Amino acid sequence: MYDFAYQKPGSVDEAAKLLGADPEAKALAGGMTLIPVLKQRLNRPSVVVDLAKTGLTGITVGADKVTIGAMTTHATVAKSADVRAKIPGLADLAFWIGDDQVRHRGTIGGSLANNDPSACYPAAALALNATIKTNKREIKADAFFQGMFTTALGQDELITSVTFSVPQKSAYEKFRNPASRYAIVGVFVAKFPSGVRLAITGAGQSGVFRQQQMEQALSANFSPDAIAGISTPASGLNGDIHASAEYRAHLIGVMALRAVAKAA
Asked: Deepest of 62, 95, 153, 203, by most Cβ within 10 A of its Cβ?
């Protein structure tokens, strides 16, 4: 690692001030991405701002909304009876992130702020029409994700909570990398009275995206048969040592069918 200063502020406002004062400062949530990056010397922050004492934890459930504090761990979401009752697909997603150690340290806010192209939570945020609340504003998920590892967040802007719309039905399916358990392809589907939203992670070169052709078909007929003949073009998809773009295109269809069957 490189040398860096370490700060552990006691409030969101103090953390935002520290980050805003230095463009090279980095926020630390669960550390599941930042710490490995530091160890590999791929990032050299001047100061690491630890958010552990900002108090951004907890789950609040309403009739049609579920709000989760940014520092709430994946394990807490996975074990929440309230989340499982309202949005079972979200609880399942959290349960299959990484391993036990990652789930007990990683946070929902850290995952969304990092916007790894293979992360699971961005698919849930898009499919569930989430609103990301920061210390400055509220951002709809459709506007929040702006490309690989890129979001609408400013340097001194921190996610404080995420509010998900409660769907009639939901499910998440992913084809996992056997070592890291990241999504080679993951599909989250959510059915609302107004229609269906379906988001894909792990496949796109620009990160998470919605498959609108599948959404339209499922809005008319929520069944696996409705999307059995719909394919996703390989152009614009990732190709690497784990899977070619063509194979990821195939997996999108397979994971979408499984997610819809599970939700239905």
From this structure: 203
Tell me the two tokens of residue 43.
């990032």
- The C-alpha atoms of residue 158 and residue 31 are separated, in whole angstroms, by 15
Q: What's the pTM value of the predicted model, to 2 decimals? A: 0.96
CATH (domain of 248):
3.30.390.50
In the chain, how many domains are there?
2
| Residue 79 three-state SS | helix
Long-range CB contacts (< 8 A, 24+ apart) of 174-182? 174/96, 174/120, 174/201, 174/202, 174/255, 175/202, 175/251, 175/254, 175/255, 176/96, 177/118, 177/242, 180/98, 181/96, 181/97, 181/98, 181/99, 182/116, 182/118, 182/119
Report the Cα 259 to chain-centroid distance in Å.
17
Flag whether 115 is in a domain.
Answer: no
Instruction: Return the amino acid letter for 164.
Output: F
Residue 139 to residue 10: CA distance in whole angstroms: 25
Q: What is the pLDDT of residues 95-124, one digit of tens each?
A: 999 999 999 999 999 999 999 999 999 999
Q: What is the DSSP letter of 16?
A: H
Domain of 239, in residue numbers: 169-263
Q: In terms of DSSP bridges, do strands 195-201 and 183-192 run parallel, antiparallel, or are they unpaired? A: antiparallel
256 domain residue, yes or no: yes
Question: Which of 50, 69, 87 is the last residue before a domain boundary?
Answer: 50
Q: Decide if 189 is inside a domain.
A: yes
